[in-house]
Amino acid sequence: MAPNTARAKRRRAALRTAAFLSPWLIGFAVFFAYPLLSTVYFSFTRYDGFRPPVLNGLANWSYVFTDYPLFWPAMRNTLWLVVVMVSCRVVFGLGIGLLITKIKTGAGIFRTLFYLPYLAPPVAATLAFVFLLNPGTGPANTLLDGMGLPTPGWFTDAAWSKPALTALALWGVGDLMVIFMAALLDVPKEQYEAAELDGAGARARFRHITLPNISPIVLFAVVTGVIQAMQYYTQPLVAGKVAAGVIGGSGQQFEPGYPDKSTLTLPQLVYNVGFQRSDYGAACVVALVLFALSMAFTALLMRRRGGLIGAGD
Amino acid sequence: MTLTDTNPTDERPRTRPPAGGPAPAARPRTRKAVLHWVAVHSLGVAAALFFVLPFVFLFLTSLMSDHQALTRDLWPRTWEWGNYAKVWHTPGFLTWWRNTLLYAGLGTLLTVVSSVPVAYALAKFRFRGRRLALLLVIAMMMLPPQVVVIPMYLFWAKQLDLSGTLWPLIVPMAFGDAFSIFLLRQFLLTIPDEYLDAARVDGCGELRTLLRVVLPMARPGIAAVALFQFFYAWNDYFGPQIYASDNPAAWTLSYGLESFKGAHHTNWNLTMAATVLVMAPVIVLFFLAQKAFVEGVTLTGVKG
C-alpha cells in the first residue's frame, strides 16, 4: 500500500503543479514555440501570405545577406545604437545616480523630476523631441543659436539623427538612475570611512570602492541596455516618419529610415519586408537574425549574473 | 528597497549650510561642506533643466496660436486653451482613448490573474524542470516581439480573421506574461516558506494558501506588475500597428497620436496638445502609485 499512496501523492503534486503552470504552458506553446518554429520554416520558403508557402532552400537567406539593400545599413545602425547609445545611457545614468545620492536639499523633488521623462510614452516623447529639435524653429536650436553654438539638423540630417535619438534616450534615463541609486546606497559606509581615514581622495574612493561594489549592476545595465537597443523600434520609426513629413509635407511616400536610412533598425526591417512588401520568407530571415542576437546577449546576462535567477535555485 | 525608504535627505543634516544664520565660521571643514553643497546642487539644477525643459517647451507650444507655433517664439503671445478642446473633439480621439483603456485595463487584469499562479508555482513548488521553465520564461521575456510577429499575424488575421481589432493583443495576456511572471516570482521568493507551511498545516489546499496567505502579502509585487503592464499597453505602438492599422476605429492613443501628426503636419500646437494629453494620464498614475512603481524597477531591472 505504501508505495501506492506515495505514487498517488506524487501524481497529485504533479497535477497540481501543471494546473498552476497551465496558463503559461499554453502561452508558451501558442505564442512562443509554435511561431518560432513557423518562423524558421517560413525562412526557407517563398511566401507572400496568399499563395501557400513553397520551399526555396536558402534563397531568402542569400537574398537578405547579399542583395537586400537595407539589411547592412540597418545592421550597422543597430550596432551603432548598441555601442554608442548604450554606453552613453549607462555613463549618464550612473552620473545622475551619483548626483542624486549627493543631493541633500530637495532630494525628493530632484528625484521625481529626473525620473518623470522615463514615463513619457515613447510615441509622445519622440514627437516632442522631433519638435524640440526641429532644425528651423525648434526651441533647442533657438537656444543653441542664442548661445552662439552650431545648430545641427538633428532628425533631418543623416549624421545627426542617431545622436538625436541618443539625446531622447538620455532624457528617459530614469530607470537606470533608480537602479544605480539603489546600488550606490548599498555600498557599505564603513569602506568609505576607512578609505577617508587612509587619506583617499574622492576619485580614488570612486575607483577603488564604488566601482568594484556596483560592477554587477553596471554589467546588468549594459546587457539589458544592449537587449533593448536591439529591440529599438518605436522611437526611430516615429522620428523618421515625422521628420520626413515635416520636410516633405504629409501624404508623401515615407522613405524607410529617413534621413538616408540612418534611423533604420533591424526590427523595422521585419515590418518593412514582411508587411509592406509581403515577402514573409525574407522577413523571417531578418527575424531570426534578431532572435539569434537577442538570445546571445541573454545568455551572456545569465552566465555573468546568476542573480537574475536568484535565491531558491 | 524603495526611493522613499532610502531617502538620503534626512540622514546627514549636519552637512547643510546654516540657513539664514550668521555666516559659517571659517572652520575649513564647514566651508568645504558649503562649497560642496553649492557645487552638487548647481549640478542638480542643471540636470533638472535638461529633464524638465522639454516638458515646459511642449506645454508652452501647445498653448500657442497655429501661426505662432511655426515661429521661433518660446513664449505664447496669446494663451490658446481652446487647442485642448480642439484636440479632444478631433474625430476618433475619444475612440482611441476608449480603445487604450480597454487594451491597458483588460490586458492588465488578465495578465495579473494568469501570471500569479505561474509565478507562485515557480517560486514555491519543487518539481522537475523548474529551472528549465524559468530559463524559458526569461527567454520569452527577452524575445523581441518582431521575431514571432509573422506567424502570429497570419494566425490572428488569416485563421481567426481578427485583424482590425485589439483582440490579438488582449487575448494572449490571458496566458501569462513572461516579464510579469518573472517579476512576481522574484517577489514571492521573499515570502518565507513558514507562512505557507502554517497555512498547509491548518488544512489549506494550495489554491486557498495562494488566495488567503500569499496574495495579501504579495500586494506590492502585484501592484508593480499591474502598473508595468498598464504602461506597456498604453505605450505599445508595434502591436496596434500590426493588427489595427487598417481600422482607425481600433486605434489606440499611441498609434493614433502619430497619425494625428500626419493629418496636422503644420499644426505643432495641436500636435503638442495631443502629446500632453497622452502623457498626462501616465504621469498622474505615477504620482498616485510612485512607491509601487519604483519598487518594481529596483526589483527586476528594466522593462523597455
What would your notes on this structure say?
The complex is a heterodimer of chains A (313) and B (304). With 313 residues, chain A is mainly alpha-helical. Chain A has two domains: 2-60, no CATH class; 70-306, MetI-like (MetI-like fold, Orthogonal Bundle), CATH 1.10.3720. Chain A has helices at 2-42, 59-67, 71-102, 107-119, 122-132, 139-146, 161-171, 174-186, 189-197, 202-230, 234-248, 266-276, 280-304, and strands at 45-46, 54-55. Chain A has a two-stranded antiparallel ribbon with strand order 1-2. In chain A, α2 (59-67) packs across α13 and α5 (122-132) packs across α11 (234-248). The model of chain A is unreliable at 307-313 (pLDDT under 50). Chain B has helices at 28-62, 82-88, 93-124, 130-142, 149-159, 167-170, 178-189, 193-201, 206-217, 219-235, 238-244, 253-263, 268-288, 290-300. The longest helix of chain B has 35 residues, at 28-62. Chain B is flat. Chain B is mainly α. Chain B has two domains: 13-62; 88-300, MetI-like (MetI-like fold), CATH 1.10.3720. At the A-B interface, α1, α3, α4, α5 and α8 of A face α1, α3, α4, α5 and α7 of B.
